[in-house]
């Protein structure tokens, strides 16, 4: 497979996952906001911005709906939902002949939906109606991404290209979940002297819902929400698809499949070691140990390792030196 | 009009249907239908009111969702439009088609021999059939190709020639496209949509299939692989996603199951071309290139090209890779060379041309130039190297100012222009609102030339959608329609 194609498939998948994650984060927080006084909004939305990695050109200005509208529709903002969908579609367009027609149709329809003229021209009118319809709209984005994933699984050969799509999705999902945990850790359980707030229950629900994890969590631990269990579930659960451990397991699967297909001539030791180390660390960690040590640096360590895996994948499969390839 | 006879023109859908000296594809005269259009007209008129419009919308949605669009530049992002097209198929009978098929086969065979000759012995030049200076002054003439052996001596593997129909119904060749002809994906996708929209009619008419085009293209490219490469790696080289024909490049690559590559995917080492894959570098044997000569290799041609591959030409010269079409083929579709094509056919094949040319005046000839300058308002003047309807003067539709401008340009650089009498292309029925109205059309069949000549029965019928317009180019308000070649 062409390196450029692998690159595009990987980013197409990451951007779609990011669009879905952003849509869910906004939807969940718009909902929770209704249950609390307006004075609490600042803390909430600053946390959302932090969880999204502080997108450039967006600041909290006291207007939740304006903020969410920008994070949804402003194509100029890197990381807005429209931006991510446009970027995903642009990547798909570059590899139009590599993905199935059904995949392209599903993605293209989503793109047409979010960029349609009614939104772009009558922006103000929309800002009004968005307040009322935001949930419908955000839901429809999430559904479209889910459908795209379903169509991808059932119409595209599960070969190397598909594996790069899985790789992108797992990488994005693991990073997004870790960043969410980081932010909640910083705001809540990372401050031991802090007395529990009245409505903290709401925040735990919010965190779980942001990862579609509320129902899955309850099945394991019942609706008894404690920060330690939530951390354990979102970080270390082996079966839940949005947990970090699950994502890294999928990432490792994708990497081995790609290696089997393409990497035979490479010495993949470095990449194998990196991914394997992260996978085992998540597989064998216990939440008690993590909590008793420095949680923040543990989480940061995971993000750093993800970044290093990304760089190494690019060095091995995509941006390699021509001379080295000719020699090898 | 004789009302008691129940004239076809009483029907609301056909009111305003203009018939004049131009050949009409559907009507031989008032109330006289060409028989091969009968099932179509009957079917259209039997549909309930508004049904055609509904089907048109259904087709629109299908094109849009498939992303068969082009980008409108200079507007805000995401302004993509579907290519304009018309729902009413253009129908060609089996016997009309067989003339076209034989005529194009003859023409392309001769043009290929011409290219081989001028880049090697140059017999036709020594024999004075085509003047040396016309060939050597052509911008598309590539000195680098002199004496170079191309696989199977095939220079032009993929060709699209533009035909028009004169007032007497005869097909003639308006121009040849021997460099990187485009549009074949619209022929294929138009057909696919039409089969969905008019299944019953399609079946009744016994339309000949065109689906095998991509297979034939792949076979043609494979037959041109360098020797000793029994399992050639064939790729399609595109300028990239911003090219207006990108949809077509992606479409063809996918249909053929070959890699779609950009210049940055390829590297040349020791005169061998490789593509950069996730499992390392992989050798490339045949390149179906959709990048112009000028941009394909910054070392051999334009050094400012970002689209090409440095060293590609040397790899080609070394015989390690085949490019289709070859370099320098544009010399044979130069509009001044066009005027010599009938002589070229006679010279190499000792046959009379089956498809005629449009009468063409060479501006380098003093007598012909004088004649043209005196009659500019009746002429169409074209720049010899341009395509896409650019650099053209359409005499009858021009202002005195434009004519003066062209007269000056012709005198300043006679080699750069040719002139032809203004021809009224034939008209075919098109759907305008809820009515059928005639619009001017041409026809671009696609010819493949490898170990044999293949022409799929059909082509791209381009339509001048604006009323009265003669310009069919998609860049200038033209559209397309499906072309049905019947078995009979």
Summarize the topology.
The complex is a heterodimer of chains A (about 325) and B (about 500).
Chain A (H helix, E strand, L loop, with lengths): L2 H31 L7 H11 L12 H10 L7 H14 L6 H15 L1 H5 L1 H33 L4 H30 L10 H11 L3 H8 L5 H10 L7 H19 L6 H16 L2 H6 L2 H24 L3 H6 L1
Helix pairs in contact in A: 1-2, 1-3, 1-4, 1-7, 1-8, 1-9, 2-8, 3-7, 4-5, 5-7, 8-11, 8-12, 8-15, 12-13, 13-15
Chain B lengths: L26 E3 L2 E2 L4 H9 L4 H15 L3 E3 L8 E3 L2 E8 L1 H25 L4 H4 L5 H5 L21 E8 L5 E7 L6 H14 L1 H7 L7 H11 L10 E4 L8 H11 L2 E3 L4 E4 L2 E6 L2 E4 L2 E4 L3 H4 L15 H6 L4 E3 L10 H4 L2 H9 L6 E2 L3 E2 L3 H9 L4 E5 L8 E3 L5 H13 L4 E5 L5 E6 L2 E10 L1 E4 L3 E3 L4 E5 L13 E8 L3
Parallel strand pairs in B: 5-25, 7-15, 8-9, 8-13, 13-14
Antiparallel strand pairs in B: 1-2, 3-4, 6-7, 6-22, 10-11, 11-12, 16-19, 17-18, 17-19, 20-21, 21-24, 22-23, 24-25
Fold and architecture overview:
The complex is a heterodimer of chains A (328) and B (488). Chain A has 328 residues and is mainly α. Chain A has two domains: 1-156, no CATH class; 158-328, no CATH class. Chain A contains 16 helices and no strands. The radius of gyration of chain A is 20 Å and the shape is globular. Helix content of chain B is 30%, strand content 24%. Mean pLDDT of chain B is 89; it is low at 1-5 and 74-78. Chain B has a domain at 359-421: Dna Ligase, domain 1. Chain B is globular. Chain B has helices at 38-46, 51-65, 94-118, 123-126, 132-136, 184-197, 199-205, 213-223, 246-256, 293-296, 312-317, 335-338, 341-349, 366-374, 400-412; strands at 27-29, 32-33, 69-71, 80-82, 85-92, 158-165, 171-177, 234-237, 259-261, 266-269, 272-277, 280-283, 286-289, 322-324, 356-357, 361-362, 379-383, 392-394, 417-421, 427-432, 435-444, 446-449, 453-455, 460-464, 478-485. Classes of the chains: A mainly alpha (328), B alpha+beta (488). Chain A binds chain B through residues 1-4, 6, 75, 86, 90, 93-94, 96-98, 101, 104-105, 108-109, 111-112, 115, 120, 160, 258, 261-265, 317-318, 320, 322, 325-326, 328, and chain B through 64-67, 76-78, 241, 246-247, 250-251, 253-254, 259-262, 264-265, 267, 269, 275-281.
């Amino acid at each position: 497979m062409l390196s450029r194609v692998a690159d595009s498939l990987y980013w197409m998948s990451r951007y779609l996952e990011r669009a879905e994650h952003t849509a869910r984060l906004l939807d969940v927080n718009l909902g929770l906001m209704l249950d609390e006084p307006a004075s609490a909004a600042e803390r909430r939305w600053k946390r959302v911005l932090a969880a999204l990695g502080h997108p450039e050109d967006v600041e909290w200005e006291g207007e939740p709906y304006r903020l969410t509208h920008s994070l949804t529709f402003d194509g100029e903002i890197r990381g807005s939902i429209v931006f991510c969908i446009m970027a995903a579609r642009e990547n798909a367009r570059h590899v139009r002949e590599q993905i199935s027609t059904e995949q392209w149709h599903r993605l293209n329809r989503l793109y047409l939906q979010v960029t349609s003229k009614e939104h772009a021209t009558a922006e103000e009118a929309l800002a009004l109606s968005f307040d009322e319809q935001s949930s419908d709209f955000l839901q429809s984005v999430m559904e479209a991404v889910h459908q795209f994933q379903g169509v991808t699984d059932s119409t595209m050969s599960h070969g190397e290209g598909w594996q790069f799509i899985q790789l992108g999705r797992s990488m994005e999902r693991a990073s997004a979940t870790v960043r969410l945990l980081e932010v909640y850790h910083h705001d809540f359980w990372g401050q031991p002297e802090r007395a529990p707030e009245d409505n903290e229950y709401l925040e735990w629900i919010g965190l779980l819902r942001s990862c579609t994890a509320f129902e899955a969590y309850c099945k394991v631990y019942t609706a008894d929400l404690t920060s330690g269990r939530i951390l354990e579930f979102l970080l270390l659960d082996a079966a839940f698809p949005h947990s970090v451990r699950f994502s890294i397991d999928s990432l490792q699967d994708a990497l081995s499949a790609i290696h089997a297909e393409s990497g035979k001539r490479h010495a993949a030791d470095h990449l194998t070691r990196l991914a394997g180390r992260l996978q085992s660390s998540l597989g064998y960690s216990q939440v008690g140990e993590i909590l008793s040590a420095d949680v923040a640096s543990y989480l940061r360590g995971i993000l750093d390792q993800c970044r290093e895996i990304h760089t190494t994948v690019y060095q091995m499969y995509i941006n390699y030196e021509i001379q080295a390839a000719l020699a090898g | 009009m004789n009302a008691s006879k129940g004239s076809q023109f009483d029907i609301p859908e056909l009111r305003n249907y203009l018939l004049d000296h131009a050949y009409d594809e559907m009507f031989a005269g008032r109330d006289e239908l060409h028989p091969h259009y009968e099932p179509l007209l009957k079917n259209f008129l039997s549909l309930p009111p508004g049904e055609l419009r509904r089907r048109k919308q259904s087709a629109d949605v299908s094109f849009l969702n498939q992303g068969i669009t082009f980008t409108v530049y200079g507007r805000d992002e995401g302004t993509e439009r579907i290519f304009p097209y018309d729902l009413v198929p253009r129908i060609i009978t089996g016997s009309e088609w067989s003339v076209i098929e034989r005529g194009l086969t003859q023409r392309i065979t001769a043009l290929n021999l011409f290219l081989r000759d001028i880049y090697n012995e140059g017999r036709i030049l020594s024999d004075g059939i085509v003047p040396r200076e016309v060939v050597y002054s052509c911008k598309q003439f590539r000195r680098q190709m002199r004496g170079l052996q191309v696989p199977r001596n095939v220079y032009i593997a993929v060709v699209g020639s533009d035909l028009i129909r004169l007032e007497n119904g005869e097909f003639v060749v308006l121009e040849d496209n021997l460099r990187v002809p485009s549009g074949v994906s619209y022929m294929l996708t138009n057909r696919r949509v039409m089969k969905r929209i008019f299944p019953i009619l399609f079946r009744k008419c016994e339309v000949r299939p065109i689906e095998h085009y991509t297979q034939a293209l792949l076979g043609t490219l494979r037959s041109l692989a360098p020797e000793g490469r029994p399992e050639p790696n064939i790729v399609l080289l595109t300028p990239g996603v911003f090219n207006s024909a990108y949809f077509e490049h992606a479409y063809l690559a996918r249909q053929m199951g070959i890699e779609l590559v950009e210049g940055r995917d390829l590297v040349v080492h020791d005169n061998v071309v490789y593509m950069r894959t996730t499992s390392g570098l992989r050798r490339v044997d045949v390149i179906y290139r959709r990048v112009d000569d000028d941009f394909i290799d910054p070392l051999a041609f334009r050094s400012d090209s970002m689209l090409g591959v440095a060293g590609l030409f040397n790899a080609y010269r070394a015989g390690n890779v085949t490019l289709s079409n070859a370099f320098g083929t544009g010399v044979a579709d130069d509009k001044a060379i066009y005027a010599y094509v009938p002589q070229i056919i006679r010279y190499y094949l000792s046959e009379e041309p089956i498809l005629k040319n449009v009468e063409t005046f060479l501006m380098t000839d003093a007598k012909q130039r004088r004649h043209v300058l005196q009659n500019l308002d009746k002429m169409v003047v074209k720049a010899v190297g341009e395509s896409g309807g650019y650099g053209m003067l359409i005499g009858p539709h021009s202002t005195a100012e434009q004519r003066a401008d062209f007269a000056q340009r012709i005198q300043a650089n006679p080699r750069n222009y040719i002139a032809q009498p203004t021809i009224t292309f034939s008209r075919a029925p098109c759907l305008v609102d809820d009515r059928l109205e005639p619009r001017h059309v041409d026809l671009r069949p696609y010819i493949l030339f490898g170990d044999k000549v293949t022409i799929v029965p059909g082509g791209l019928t381009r339509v001048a959608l604006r009323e009265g317009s003669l310009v069919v180019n998609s860049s200038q308000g033209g559209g397309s329609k499906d072309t049905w070649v019947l078995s009979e």
